[in-house]
Specification:
By secondary structure, this protein is an all-beta fold. 0% of the residues lie in helices and 57% in strands.
Length: 347
């Protein structure tokens, strides 16, 4: 079955990337390849995009400084995007955003600024900022954790708390979200990983577990819900036994059946495939597959669950794999030229 895609990109040269796209890109996935790639909206460095549940609205960060932005768009039946406005992200270089499942709020965080913001949504447009949090402090790694660096936001599927992954602090923080959009830190729920450098988190379908990907030491942690908080109960490396040199993991995804966890490795340029045992709260690396491109960032599974798409930022392509859920095998089907792809979202 064919599906619409939106692809977040970099448009400018930055210290970590030679961005040369023109903004948010639209495309189609025909089940085998990404086709009909076009510019949907000219936005500077829209490195992360999110789509509303009904596909009618799209949101994109503008990873710029000293004050970045967040843009909203109405999406028509033909896939075109109509601007609904832009607001300040409340800090330098927003790296992530997420929609609250209620559709009432938009969450965003800034990497360089180390801030978290909540915005009310009004008919899809971005309204007032209902919460603003400035993280303070630093982590053990002097080079990468010299200040807070908010890298990802999500919503706890059981409690509704806002979950903030801060690489700079080496912490995952849980914030209670009020009906008015205010945030209140739950200090006892914070998970600290220190120099491991927490980057992205994915909840397991059972709601009892979460998988935390650490960028600085190439590990995947298993978090298990214990009462009103999570505890680290297991960990595994994301690299194969022969891997050498620098590596920076980027994305973590869990299959709908909960049996498999997929991770991208930049440096190694691989996809790590893990078996997950919910009964034992354990994870095991079963295979490391060449990504087929350089610096794989985001990785998504198709709605049918039988295809995996990887955004290879530094080789300007989106690579498609066939995925067999029973065997966990990945088989490369091909690649499509896409300039500086970072994030992939089915629309």
């Amino acid at each position: 079955m064919a599906h619409d895609l939106l692809i977040g990109t970099y448009t400018q040269r930055l210290p970590h990337v030679d961005g040369h796209a023109d903004g948010v890109l639209s495309a189609r996935f025909d089940g085998t390849a990404v086709v009909d790639v076009a510019v949907a909206a000219e936005v500077p460095n829209p490195s992360w995009v999110a789509v509303s549940a009904d596909g009618s609205h799209v949101y994109a960060v503008e990873e710029t400084g000293p004050d970045g932005g967040v843009s909203a768009f109405a999406r028509s039946a033909d896939g075109s995007l109509r601007p609904l406005g832009r607001v300040s992200s409340g800090g330098d270089s927003p790296a992530h955003l997420a929609l609250h499942p209620s559709g009432r709020f938009l969450l965003t965080g800034t990497y360089v600024g180390g801030t978290v913001s909540v915005f009310a949504l009004d008919g899809g447009a971005i309204g007032e900022r209902t919460a603003f949090v400035q993280h303070e402090g630093r982590g053990p790694d002097a080079a990468r954790q010299e200040a807070p660096h908010v890298h990802q936001l999500s919503v706890d599927p059981v409690t509704g708390d806002v979950v903030v992954v801060d690489l700079g602090l080496g912490e995952v923080r849980w914030y209670a979200l009020s009906s008015a959009g205010a945030l209140t830190l739950r200090p006892g729920a914070t998970v600290a990983v220190g120099a491991a450098g927490s980057r992205h988190l994915a909840f397991h379908p059972d709601g009892r577990h979460a998988l935390l990907l650490n960028e600085l030491d190439s590990t995947l942690d298993v978090l298990r819900r214990e009462g009103d908080r999570f505890e680290r109960v297991a960990s595994a490396g994301t690299r194969g036994p022969d891997a050498a040199g620098a590596n920076l993991p980027a994305a973590v995804r869990v299959t709908d059946d909960g049996r498999t966890v997929l991770v991208t490795n930049r440096g190694d340029d691989t996809i790590a495939v893990f078996a997950f045992d919910a009964a034992g709260s354990a994870v095991e690396l079963v295979e490391v597959v060449a990504a087929g491109g350089r610096a794989p960032r985001d990785l998504v599974l198709s709605p049918e669950g039988d295809r995996v798409l990887a955004a290879c930022q530094d080789s300007d392509e989106v690579v498609v794999f066939a995925f067999d859920a029973a065997s966990r095998a990945l088989r490369r089907l091909g690649a499509t030229p896409v300039p500086t792809p970072v994030c992939i979202a089915f629309a």
